[in-house]
Amino acid sequence: MTEKFDYEKLGLKVGLEIHRQLDTKKLFSPVPSELTERVDFTFERRLRPTMSEMGEIDPAALEEFKKGKKYVYEGNYGLTDLVYMDEEPPRGPDREALEVSLQIAYLLNAKPVDEVHFMRKIVIDGSNVSGFQRTAIIAMNGKVETPWGSVGIPTICLEEDACRIVERKEKEVIYRLDRLGIPLVEISTTPDIHHPEQAKVVAKYIGDALRATKKVKRGLGTIRQDLNVSINGGARIEIKGVQELDMIPLIIEREVERQVNLLKIRDELRGRGIKPEDIREEFHDVTEVFQNTGSKIVAKAIKSGGKVLAVKLPGFRGLIGREIQPGRRLGTEMADRAKKYVRGIFHIDELPNYGIKEKEVNAIIEKLGLGERDAFVLVAAEEETAKKALAEVVKRAKEAIEGVPEETRRALPDGNTQYMRPLPGKARMYPETDIPTIFLPEEYKERIKANLPELPQERVERFVKEYRIDRSLAETLVNDERDELFEELVKKGVKPSLAASILVVVLKGLKKEVPIEKVTEEHIGEAFDLYLEGKIAKEAFEEIFKELALHPEKTAKQVAEEKGLTLLSEEEVEEIIEEVIKANIDVIKAKGMGAMGIIMGRAMAKLRGRADGKLVSSLVRKKIQELS
User: Fold this and answer.
1) What are the angstrom distances between the C-alpha of 89 and each of 28, 92, 245, 310?
2) What is the 3-state secondary structure (H, E, C) of 449-475?
3) Single pTM value for the model
4) Number of compact structural domains in the chain
5) What's the mean pLDDT when you consider all of the chain?
């Protein structure tokens, strides 16, 4: 497959940040790390930025503050305490969370620190009640080997997760407190990744190390992967919220495409002689042009007392509508910036459209005195709101002349990205004064290092060698985290091939039919106990699991009895086979042993789950031979 870009020539640099929730108690209070839909109380806060130790204010924090939002927090008495309402000093940190993070550090070839110092990181989007997140460096200087070369892991941190968002309103955001304080391990790599596929390899290796501990949470929202991407002449872009491993290469490719196209736009603007100072915050009232407009959006804004304002962008005609990612244009980037004030903007490259007619476009061109290469952007809203939105457009236009602005973007499901906020600066960290220094003695670290879990790939290799099962079965057992259950069943006396087949083939096969995730390990263990006691045949597992998925309140024994899946005696099996033989005597006389498949199928239709297949086969063969 031909690659879209020469990444080496472009000087691609990618760094990863991986955040994974740990399955322990909350980091600074002994509260369970669980989510709930039950709400017992609410309270409100407003947050404002503070200066760092250097006397500076972080630009990302300042931008959030400017939105002037109120934050409402929903709490639950069992899963929220005063620590996470910011009414009581933190306790801890949780010892298990600390030990798991140290295990991860060793698995990633990193060196743990001698002293753990927690810091406060300013976060004022409301997701932390206190206005900051507590974080500490646990280990440094790790590495991951890849076919493209070594990738460094400069820091591994332990921090607390933020609230989860329930609803966003225009001037209010509602958060749920249950997720706040769940321990997170944050792993950052150096920007030594130079190919999109390499990033996927590194992310998988780190993910394997995390899963090896058996103490990380699973499911949507428990892992967040952020990418830092840049190319020569471009800028470092932080891409948040990459959920799927397989999407990493596509997202990187699309970001490279965006930066390449933005640099082309920059060069064209400079070729047209446009400078940042040529773009002015001069907003023109063009409301009168739209007095009889066919645009519903514009007409609605005017009717509600708003105005239509326009700004001139010299030299931008044909470039605002230029595609920079599939389905996204420079105009989309401008609209994303203005979204904090208005729902959308109009620009000359997409008009006439949306009910705006050519004569209205021409009237604006004349009113603003535009040349052939000049563009305009319109906003229809309350006057001050429209001015604020157009100020964002002007800012983004000036940045387009410079090239690629540094910013934080969110990953979209199609692989594209969207503006979120300016790139955070260094002015957002200051010491945590409520948590004393935690010393990590050498003997403590050595004890953890001596008891590290197997990495998933090591576990797969051992299963193949020790249990002689197919590699694909071993990989699925490990990836689905059924490996510990598998080994427990083997220790009980279940044949490895049967245990693997039931846990992988049977359970996965039922996934499309029933909610198989409701079948617990306890259910599975009970079913295998019945099998080992000789009470059910292996053919009964599928029917038992199907019923348990629909009725998880039942036991495997109940289902086996209700469904008539308990094993028949050999005499009872023989009686049923005799009936099948009598009903099909003509077929046997005509085909002899050639009727084996037909008779076996009809016998199993009556006996499936109630008799061992080998016993049925043996008896059917014997009966046919007697009649042949």
Assistant:
1) 9, 10, 38, 52
2) HCCCCCCHHHHHHHHHHHHCCCHHHHH
3) 0.81
4) 4
5) 91
